[in-house]
Amino acid sequence: MVEVHLERSINNWKIISLLKRGLLKVWNGITVEPLLVFFTLPFYMSSLAIQNLSLEKACRVNLNLSTSICDAIAQRNRSGFNETEEIMAQKIVAAASVWKNVIAGVFPAVLLPLFGSWSDRNKIRSVLVIMPIIGEVISNIGFLLCTYFFYELPMEVNTVIEVLPTAITGGANMVYLGVFIFVSTTSSPENRIFRMGIVQTLFNICVTVGNAISGVMYTSIGFYGVFSLSLVMYVLGALYVYYISNDGRSDLTKWELVKDVVNVKKTVSSFKFIKKPSSNAETRQIGAVLFLDVLVIGPLIGKISLS
């Protein structure tokens, strides 16, 4: 009996030791993953508050409808408004969404290849994630100002603040580009795919949680609470990236680095990887992946923008 008990104790100790080693390995391997929480969670958590702020401004400021009607629209109390009044407010928001989506799509499409190629050439990664965070910080400060000066600023100002700082700094796509670059350069070939899978899983979790709590947060703490909390999380994310960043030293001066961002010739040369594979089959495979990405993501983004 004593020997059996001793053997069980040894086995339990081995299991605990293996778990500790595994957890320590995971802990030591964490680099940029927490940034996804600091960025993705507030990004989606504030989405409903932003939509409601635009809708309320369209109703109260642009259309100058009565308080009772706008309150009923905000609370979805159909006994307090008719369908025509709701459609009028939604048309104003929809009209602004047209040029908002154009800006949100054009700027990142130009910036991502430029900064991605620039990052590869100069081994600088932190800029890819800090710059979009700065854009979100500016946007949330703007939302707080739009809320404070609610009746002085029309809905269009709210839309500009929502899209412009985010677009000109790359937005969420720039952050995810930086995150995957961080992961690919700080992990070994053996666990690179595993870590990328963890990043994607963590992203999906943050999106789900952010969307799930967006309504609760909006009804609980209102515009000021949601935008202030988002602002704090973005700042914490920027500080975290600054703390963990280990960018290589470039031979270029700061001004030369800035000019190198718009080096179109070097950026275009980066796309030669498409022709790099030795076999035609690999080339066709890359082309098929790019085509399917457009085919799948395009309708998905369109569906989301209409929802």
TrEMBL record:
The keyword Ligase does not apply. The chain crosses the membrane at residues 26-45, 92-115, 127-151, 163-185, 197-217, 223-244. The keyword Transmembrane applies. Keywords: Membrane, Transmembrane, Transmembrane helix. It comes from Pyrocoelia pectoralis. It is found in: Membrane. This is Uncharacterized protein. It comes from the Eukaryota. GO terms for molecular function: transmembrane transporter activity. It is a multi-pass membrane protein. InterPro entries: MFS, MFS_trans_sf.
